[in-house]
Amino acid sequence: MTDNVDVQELEKFSQLAHKWWDKDSEFKPLHAINPARLAFVERLCGGLDGQRVLDVGCGGGILAESMAASGASVTGIDLAKKSLKVAQLHSLDSGVTVDYRCVSAEALAAEAPASFDVVTCMEMLEHVPSPHSIVQSCAALVKPGGLVVFSTLNRNLKSYLLAVVGAEYVLGLLGRGTHDYARFLKPSELSRMARDCRLQTLEVKGMQYNPLSGACTLSDDTDVNYLIACRRAG
């Protein structure tokens, strides 16, 4: 483990990097929930056109590219070099421009504080040793009054049964060992981290993914996957 990085997590995603844009692979759920995530961000920032956006933990670029296609100037950062290479190649193929960089959120926060109108960090907090450090960095990177959006997994029996046992071992939607239940965060815990970093929680929404229909909807049920939107104090 180096800095705020779990080397085993990086290796795990590097092994799967070539599958990022295969909608029938382990990343199928991410492709399914992406329209809902994108719509949530767009609604809360009043549209992405012309916005300067940072996607922290961008992986293969699923969300980053969709935000760029919606008119934003997007920077995507990740420490998994193979995933970034896939993201860059897909960007060339699609013609949608995203600036991908292999840099940590902490390092970029020191380099370019208060540089972005919107910062997103999706499905990443449960994969790092110190989620608080990521929240702090996101708060530093967004401009005063700007929007920060996180998504992660709640920590309770239902989320363990659905996100770990169901998704990884019963349905095989995700590879076994994808998630460490101990790293899941309750909305109250994430809201407290955000508040400690001068981020005001605006809205919390649950994401429900139906593996049979492949549809994803947002609701007030935050028991498993959830989104939390915050505003940086001016």
From TrEMBL:
* InterPro entries noted in UniProt: SAM-dependent_MTases_sf, UbiG_MeTrfase
**In the Enzyme Commission scheme, what number(s) does this protein have?**
2.1.1.222, 2.1.1.64
**Which EC class does it fall in?**
transferase
Identify the Gene3D superfamilies for this entry: Vaccinia Virus protein VP39
GO molecular function terms attached to this record: 2-polyprenyl-6-hydroxyphenol methylase activity; 3-demethylubiquinol 3-O-methyltransferase activity; polyprenyldihydroxybenzoate methyltransferase activity
Q: Which reaction does it catalyse?
A: a 3-demethylubiquinol + S-adenosyl-L-methionine = a ubiquinol + S-adenosyl-L-homocysteine + H(+); a 3-(all-trans-polyprenyl)benzene-1,2-diol + S-adenosyl-L-methionine = a 2-methoxy-6-(all-trans-polyprenyl)phenol + S-adenosyl-L-homocysteine + H(+)
According to the record, the signal peptide region is none
- A Pfam family recorded for this sequence: Methyltransf_23
Which UniProt key words apply to this protein? Methyltransferase, S-adenosyl-L-methionine, Transferase, Ubiquinone biosynthesis
* Chain sites annotated for binding S-adenosyl-L-methionine: R37, G57, D78, M122
Function in brief:
O-methyltransferase that catalyzes the 2 O-methylation steps in the ubiquinone biosynthetic pathway.
Which family does the record assign? Answer: Belongs to the methyltransferase superfamily. UbiG/COQ3 family.
Task: Note the HAMAP family from the entry.
Answer: UbiG
Quote the protein name from its UniProt record.
Ubiquinone biosynthesis O-methyltransferase
- Name of the coding gene: ubiG
